[in-house]
Amino acid sequence: MSISFDPRNLLASMVGEDNGLTQAELDGGKAAAIAALKGFRVSFEEGKYGFPDLPLNKNLIQEIEATAKKLAGSFDTVCVIGIGGSALGCWALDCAMRGPHPVQGAHSSKKPRLVILDNVDPDFINHALDSMSPKKTLVVVIAKSGSTAETMGGFLIVREWLMDAIGKKAASRIIAVTSEARGDLKVLATKEGYTTFHIPENVGGRFSVLSAVGLVPAALIGVNIKKLCRGAAAMTEAAWTEDLESNIALSSALHHWLIWTLKKKSIQVAFPYSNFLWGTAFWFRQLWAESLGKAKDRTGAIVNVGQTPIAALGTTDQHSQVQLYMEGPNDKVYSFWVVEKAKKQIKIPKAKLGLDGFDYLGGQSMGKLLDAERRATEAALATSGRPNCTFTLERVDEEHLGAFFQMMEFETAFMGELLNIDAFDQEGVELGKKFTYALMGRAGWDEFKDRFADYEKKRG
Ligand code: PA5
Known about the structure:
This protein is α/β, with parallel strands linked by helices and 460 residues long. The chain has helices at residues 12-15, 23-45, 58-71, 88-97, 122-131, 149-166, 184-192, 212-220, 225-239, 248-262, 278-292, 322-327, 356-359, 366-383, 398-419, 430-439, 446-459, and strands at residues 3-6, 77-81, 113-117, 137-143, 174-178, 195-198, 267-272, 294-296, 302-305, 308-311, 332-339, 388-393.
């Protein structure tokens, strides 16, 4: 397994001192990076955060594999109902391992597909239900809180759809992934006898891809979760070392922290040159945004900090976004994600048409073209003073994916330390949730009904 980080195009020598880092700035930041690692380690050892050790939970991996084995062959679709951290990791895994939508291979009971209901758009839900057969669908409902309105609503619809088709057997076709000690989903799962997996209290949604949240759906669609966790465990080991050369999570956190805070790059573009990593880019977008966009620092001072993550796909978005990236405000840092070895290479045929626009391509591989396009974009950005860096994965397989997830989770945790903020809460999404409960008539939320009424009155 090999993942590397190349920060050369973040350096002042490549993009100028206004936009890139000097050696003195990097040297000056190293002590803060080591302190960030040590600070996070202390919190981890106190049991506050559980994601680093998730890939080491052999019992859970075995239990999930046994469940997947027992059910194998009885379904051709896994319908996940979840949202945010309870859905994006599943999508990232599915996209990387089964292929990007809509070009996944045909699904069957030997190669089940994943349908993720992570929105409450009625047209989307109806369309999804029409595409699935209740007799061949296994339902996985995921909510750590056990009460998220979108997930509870979606689940009630799917549960009834199942019960209408298979009656009492429905309970045996539902798996719940939730907190052990709280939430109405846990209560219902116990009452109706669903197979249930628990999310540790010290693992937040966006850090939960290697808990049952990601592992259960992944195992059901045939992903090798042992290998996934093996890759992640190797990254955990590397992420605890103080040597910046071998700890790419820490090195990347340091470079990004300096570029963001010293060079005012308030936007980060995650730029995979791989359709298979497109889901992972959306997973990263949530991780970075929700973890690092905060009103207050740990002293309680108002800081309103955050770096806006954007997902762009190479080469597709070269023809959509790069004009802006090259000539618009120089407020972004670009993180290219490169896959060294394609699953299978494809050659461009030598057509010899006597037409220059075609003929030079003949005999070369698509991989070479993809690589040339990306290197050209990196160079174009760098020579225009636009800082960028590159993560290279040897290939997209379970081990690399597990390691890459874990690398980004550690990087985010270290960044939280460097910014002196709590990267693990999400107070900012609470008010909208409370207004929703009030608008939907949930008992106990009258205060927010009144506050919402005040807001509407003010708006006129
Ligand atoms: O990262 C987070 O904590 C959130 O994005 C949650 O995953 C999201 O709000 C869904 O929460 P729950 O799993 O409780 O339904």
